[in-house]
Every structure is written in C-alpha cells, then in structure tokens.
C-alpha cells in the first residue's frame, strides 16, 4: 500500500496546504498536449508524486519545472503554465466531460481508452487500488 510521503505530511501539518483541483487539472490539460499519449499516465503519476510524496503544491509553477525537464518539454511552456494555473481555462473541457459523466466532485480520476471514458472515483480507495484498476484497464481495455 502506498503511503503519503514526509513532504506531504509536513505540508499538511503546517496547515498552509490548499486543496484545489482546478490548478492541477489545468496544468495536466496543458501539458498532456505536449506529451505522447503513451506517456500521459506517467505525466499524471509525476504530478501525483510531487504532491503526495513531496508535498509540493500543484497550483505553483515551480512544482512543474522538474516535470517539464523530466519530459523534455520546452521551458517556454512555463509562461503558458502560469496562465493556466491562474485562470484554469485549459481544464474547462475536461470539467465539462466529467459533468457529462455525472461527476460533481473532485478530485477524480478518469481514464480514456479509445473513445470510452472510465471513472475510477468509486472503485479505488487507495493508491494500490487505483494502480490495480489502471492495470486492469490496460490489460482488458475496460474495468471489471
């Protein structure tokens, strides 16, 4: 079972952590356009690791700079990322799709396989559950 990292525990105990899905959703929507489809889950994992293991804010550009580097993304995306985090605009289409699926609360995890979307929110309670659901989706192309 995956546990929360020391950085996350420290940020939580300081009481300054702000939980807001709009920033990370906007950042992911922007960055995934520059990452091959087969690496998009890796991008999502890198973002989750920054937050849950290292306690980094997913609403701050500085959190994404090592991710840009790790994915060989142009540092010029930093300016676009700043705007995305400020206005949340890149995530709006994703939020509309989520609402169409009946999702009304965040955070949530949605996977796309072909033209189908799968909502993990009710099926995974831990990171290990989420990983198991993800592997099932990869293996069978659907959730069992």
UniProtKB/TrEMBL annotation:
<protein>
    <submittedName>
        <fullName>Thioredoxin</fullName>
    </submittedName>
</protein>
<dbReference type="InterPro" id="IPR036249">
    <property type="entry name" value="Thioredoxin-like_sf"/>
</dbReference>
């Amino acid at each position: 079972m995956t546990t929360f990292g020391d950085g996350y525990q420290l940020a939580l105990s300081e009481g300054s952590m702000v939980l807001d899905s709009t920033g990370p959703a906007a950042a992911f929507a922007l960055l995934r356009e520059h990452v091959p489809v087969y690496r998009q889950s890796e991008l999502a994992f890198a973002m989750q690791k920054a937050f849950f293991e290292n306690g980094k804010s997913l609403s701050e550009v500085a959190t994404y700079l090592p991710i840009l580097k790790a994915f060989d993304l142009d540092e010029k995306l930093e300016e676009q990322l700043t705007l995305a985090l400020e206005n949340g605009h890149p995530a709006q289409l994703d939020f509309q799709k989520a609402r169409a699926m009946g999702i009304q609360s965040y955070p949530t995890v949605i996977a796309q396989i072909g033209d189908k979307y799968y909502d993990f929110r009710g099926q995974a309670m831990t990171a290990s559950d989420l990983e198991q659901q993800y592997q099932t989706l990869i293996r069978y192309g659907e959730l069992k």
